[in-house]
Amino acid sequence: MVEKAVLGKTATENFKRELERRIRAGYAGLFIRTFEEERTIKTIKASCERVNRSMWIWDCLLDPETATADNPAKTSIKLYTGIPNPKKEDIKRYEIDDVSRLLPVFVTVKTEPKPQPEKAVLCVMDFHFFIGDNVLLIRSIKNSLPQMKRDGKTVIFIGPRLALPEELEKDITTLDFPLPDRIEQMQILDYVLKCAEEATPDKPVNITDVIKERLCEAALGLTSQEAEDLFSLTLAKNYKLDEFSVKTVIDGKKDIIKKDGILEFFTPDISLEDVGGLRKLKKWFLKRIKSFTIDAHDFGLPYPKGVLMVGVPGCGKSLVAKAVAAFWGVPLVRLDMGRIYNKFQGASEDNARRAIMLSEAVAPSVLWIDEVEKGFSGVRSSDETSGGVQARVVQTFLTWMQEKTSAVFLACTGNAVDKLPPELLRKGRFDEIFFVDLPNPEERKEIIKIQIRKRFYKSVNADGNITTIERKLSDADIKKIVEASIGFTGAEIEQAVIDALGDCYVDGKRALKGEDVVRILIDFVPLSKTMETEITALRKWGETKAKNASEEATTVAETFNPFRIVKQTEEEDE
Length: 574
Description:
This protein is α/β, with parallel strands linked by helices. Helices cover 46% and strands 13% of the residues. It folds into 4 domains: 11-176, 3-Layer(aba) Sandwich (Rossmann fold), CATH 3.40.50.300; 182-260; 266-436, P-loop containing nucleotide triphosphate hydrolases (Rossmann fold); 439-574, Orthogonal Bundle (Helicase, Ruva Protein, domain 3), CATH 1.10.8. A 7-stranded mixed beta sheet has the order 4-3-2-5-6-1-7, with helices on both faces. Strands 8-10-11-12-9-13-16 form a 7-stranded mixed beta sheet, with helices on both faces. α13 links the parallel β10 and β11.
């Protein structure tokens, strides 16, 4: 029988020591937030042994040993020894006929054969299913905690969702059980390899140290069971672990994170070269590529905190967030603030903490929050409209942003600065705030060239061979499009190129010409016109409140578009 390796100086070991200190200090109530019940219980058991406490356990499952004809629905507090399948006569238990009697019964646990109270720890599962508005349970907990503190007893509630009512928030301390770190993921992988070796000794598994490291890094952010399942799955596919195995783990990780519903996992396939313009912003990222390494951190340089990119919609802010993750070679996780908020009490705050914990678990990483104003606006009115939930969620993120030391780079984008709380914009939350304006002539030229280059086409010759051909436009055509696209965003220019290609396809797959794109642009009313008031105010804010992402600011003269004037004149003549 293969056993998993004993944990060393890992995140779990650090948590265990912190738990020991809390128990020794006389904490009567703790709540450990986790999806890993089994691993959490084993860690608590190890802590209890070090602080000389007996460990008891309770869950909602009915205990047939204590059921009677009059009351068949009974549960029990049972002594936990860690021994699998103990004999019935060796199980010590205290009967519970109602969940509100849980802690009052635990208070009565005595040391045998002496009558004095026993210093003990009670682990409670399924608590979040019962607490709700159960006033009797809440009151019994509040009444029992002072006596438990005097007797050296501790109750530890274990669950995936923080379900503490407001009445107990100050009485019970919350701890987050850590996900496995790199060392622990390596131990899990070694365990899987040993199991495979034991099961099929005639088929040794081929794996290099480099692949082992990459597999463990790919598994960061997963629970121990999820990582073990994915390692076993990729091993079962071809009985070897290689680059394909790393991809299998990453793909499985994407599905698991997607299932969680809070974060989305991306593997960007673009680079900074795919972003037109924004040279100051790109130079800023280029300078910091080395500071986002363990070597720089060991040198005493803190990890970069992140950037806030505010500006006109459709000008490349989200594209930069994706490109920088690919450029640095780290995972990109996207947080949709709309998914944070939940109707259940405490669930929104719990989702916020879980998002932070998961992003730190996959570090080094880029955490992308798109349109950040949608999740951070209206904080002042949330006390009246949502019981202060939004204010607490935002404060959780603000505190983390200020205090974080992990290698999580925050890439936030926003379009409406007037809706952002001032606390988010102050120094210390971000390394820099950039304003992304409408593209200037040089930037539009870059954007047009990138969009044309991206729209390659395939040609089949007489032999049936396929050739990929890159589209090109003359400098004169590019110049016409640059002049016609004054006041257009990068996204609008991209769509104009796509629409022009659509016309070319309908016309018999003819070659794309500059006049095709110009015609689309002339017929299109840009965002800078439909939202002129809002964008003017936004650009005025960017002049003094943020660093311009472009090397050359867009000039006022560029608001004159000769192509649009010509079109209007022609329409008037008609």
